[in-house]
Automatic annotation (TrEMBL):
EC nos: 1.-.-.-
Keyword Metal-binding: no
Full protein name: NAD(P)/FAD-dependent oxidoreductase
A Pfam family assignment: DAO
GO molecular function: oxidoreductase activity
Keyword annotations: Oxidoreductase
Organism encoding this protein: Kribbella deserti
Leading EC class: oxidoreductase
Domain FAD dependent oxidoreductase: 4-355
Domain of life: Bacteria
Length: 380
């Protein structure tokens, strides 16, 4: 019998399982689909500190950026890790961007102001309309499916198990504690269940009788045909920060352009709360393409190979939900990371492991607690 069953084999569930097995616990991971086939497969692989305002999420992002190399050292796997840095640019006023960067510096982020000429030196194919920007050396990128797969391989190597095609339907309780997980393939006895279902976390929590307010937020990405090296960093416009922190349900787009090791260019990003409607909207793709060409004019002549989208787990207060559920002993949650799950996964897994085994957390866990009003008050 496993001590812990992690529900969800995306990057967050995989990171939690890897950290728990690294701490010596026996773990089973279940997913209704194939491992790393949901939100993780629809991600860009960003490991960012540049897009977060000072506060708990930035503290978690800084810690996770420091944690990822240690995790990758344990995994000994090629996940296309690229610590290439990020460049945020403005084509009009620099005032708001510079003010934001100054606040991040006070929180410990290395944020280097660059002139228009310096921005073009970093990215020669940028539009000459760029007024300047901020360079973030610590921004990085990895391939999320490879990373999740490597994390799960480590779980198996330590005696854990990963099962796809298993739908979690609820938990079985004895009094006010968990004694197992109910699934489409039968009952799994265990002491602890971790809800790492991403945008489906709210539905699973409700099925467990402990609702949490985690909603899907749709995002779309364009992928170009492979090219010689032409975009050296993750590059985005200053509007991206505002879109990340917004709670608006309506469509928002901002320019994000970055290359992959395979030579393709990823173009984002969009955000809209439309439930689990997976319809490809041409209008969204047109906005992404037009804004990307505005930042990198050469893209106007580059063919788009495909487009894909996914649902990100959105919490109303924009903070992940990490920790034990105060209403049911043995139920834990690791969700609500929205578009930052790849970057925050390393520290999320470590934090779950530390809290579950009684070790001192490496970051302040209080802001992410499950019992906060924005998470369970809104869901009740």
């Amino acid at each position: 019998m496993p001590e812990v069953v992690v529900v969800g084999a995306g990057i967050i569930g995989a990171a939690c399982a890897e950290a728990l097995t690294h701490a010596g616990l026996s773990v089973l991971v279940v997913d209704r689909g194939d491992p790393a086939s949901g939100t993780t497969a629809a991600g860009e692989g960003n490991v960012l500190v540049s897009d977060k305002e000072p506060g708990p999420e930035l503290a978690l992002a800084i810690a996770s950026r420091q944690e990822w190399p240690s995790v990758l050292e344990r995994l000994q796997a090629d996940v296309e890790w690229e610590p290439k840095g990020g460049l945020v640019v403005a084509t009009t006023s620099l005032e708001l961007l510079e003010k934001f960067a100054a606040s991040q510096r006070d929180a410990g982020v290395e944020a280097i102001a660059v002139s228009s000429a310096e921005a073009l030196e970093l990215e020669p194919l940028l539009t000459p309309r760029v007024a300047g920007g901020v360079y973030y050396p610590d921004d990085a990128q990895l391939q999320p499916v490879l990373a999740a797969t490597a994390l799960l391989a480590a779980v198996r190597a330590r005696g854990g198990e990963v099962r796809g095609g298993v739908t979690a339907t609820g938990v079985r309780q004895a009094g006010a504690r968990v004694v197992g997980l109910e699934t489409s393939t039968g009952f799994i006895p265990c002491e602890t269940v971790v809800n790492a279902c991403g945008p489906w976390s709210g539905a699973f929590a409700s099925a467990a009788g402990t609702p949490v307010e985690v909603l899907p937020r749709r995002g779309m990405i364009l992928v170009t045909a492979p090219l010689p090296e032409c975009v050296r960093h993750k590059v985005y416009d200053a509007d991206y920060v505002g879109a990340v922190g917004s709670g608006e349900a309506d469509l928002q787009t901002s320019t994000v352009v970055e290359s992959t090791r395979g030579g393709t260019i990823l173009i984002g990003s969009s955000r809209e709360r439309i439930g689990f409607d997976g319809t490809i909207r041409v209008r969204v793709l047109q906005e992404l393409a037009a804004k990307a060409v505005g930042l990198f004019p050469f893209l106007a002549d580059v063919p788009v190979m495909r487009a894909y989208g996914g649902f990100r787990p959105y919490a109303p207060d924009h903070l992940p939900v990490i920790g034990a559920d105060p209403r049911l002993q043995g139920l834990w949650h690791a969700t609500g990371h929205e578009g930052a799950g790849i970057g925050l996964a390393a520290s999320t897994g470590r934090l779950i492991s530390e809290l579950m085994t009684g070790r001192t957390p490496h970051v302040d866990a209080e802001p992410f607690q499950v019992g906060r009003n924005a998470v369970i008050g809104a869901a009740s």
